[in-house]
Amino acid sequence: MVDIVRKRFGLLGRNINYSFSKGYFTDKFNSENFAGCTYENFDIPEITAFPEVIKNTSDLKGMNVTIPYKETVIPFLDKLSKKAALIGAVNTIKITKKGKLKGYNTDYYGFKKSLEPLLQPHHKKALILGTGGASKGVAYALEELDIPYTFVSREAKENAIDYNRINATTFDNYQIIINSTPVGTSPNVDAFPLIPYEFFTENHIAFDLIYNPAETQFLKKAKQQGAQIKNGLDMLIFQAEKAWKIWNK
Q1: Which GO terms describe its molecular function (predicted)?
Q2: CB of 167 within 8 A of CB of 196?
């Protein structure tokens, strides 16, 4: 009888019952016959509970990290990959054979792979709605694609404009509008970022990192004006597969 090596993986976040990751990896383990591999949600109220999760979870080999802990988890890690350090956000953690925690960012990779096929020569600049952990991976991907970007925040900051500043001229100058906020995520499916959707055109891309619902109000309103739309599902799949490679290398 062959001993099955037990490997546990999971998702760190808050209020993550909706999560894509658990279903995705559970299906992957079953369909690709990764016997002994399991995936579970680690839903914690505060990041200060993270060390207890690590301490009390044996056989843990890797984790994904979601809202709201992509930035606050960093002080609890032993090491960061070069790109995660540059981005300033972590969505993948590898637990080494020595029990060390190393943080990676695969969000930027997933976003870049998902956006790239949509790009046309007239897509020159991007507007990123939100300034949280997810927005940092998006910004890094845009830098790799040589696409200048501007952040939009609820309050004007040093490196961001506020929503009140967005007008027709903004839409003339920015042809890619990316929602990196959780606004519109199930169950709050009637919510949407407060921007003037009437200025979207067929020359615009509206990209929403949200995947549930598949078509958010943000995407619906942009589509009504002729914009090309894309949700976050492909991005999630790309980043999940990249995380799997990291855990197993």
Answers
A1: NADP binding; shikimate 3-dehydrogenase (NADP+) activity
A2: yes
AA letter at 169: T
Q: Is residue 173 located within the same domain as residue 122? A: yes
Express each pLDDT in 190-224 by its tens digit: 999 999 999 999 999 999 999 999 999 999 999 99
Does 136 share its domain with 89? no
Instruction: Tell whether pTM > 0.85.
Output: yes
Cα–Cα distance list, 216 to 11, 144, 175 (Å): 23, 27, 19
Active-site pick, 61, 70, 112, 221 = 70
Same domain, 124 and 34: no
Give the mean pLDDT of 217-232.
Answer: 98
Angle of helix 233-248 versus helix 107-115 axis, rounded to 10: 140
Q: Are residues 55 and 118 in the same domain?
A: no
Tell me: pLDDT of 1 over 60: no
Under 8 Å CB-to-CB from 86, ≥6 apart: which residues?
Answer: 140
Domain count, the chain: 2
Are the C-beta atoms of residues 41 and 11 closer than 8 Å to each other?
Answer: yes
Q: Classify 234 as helix, strand or coil.
A: helix
Whole-angstrom distance, CA of residue 144 vs CA of residue 124: 13
Radius of gyration of the chain (CA): 19
220 catalytic residue (yes or no)? no
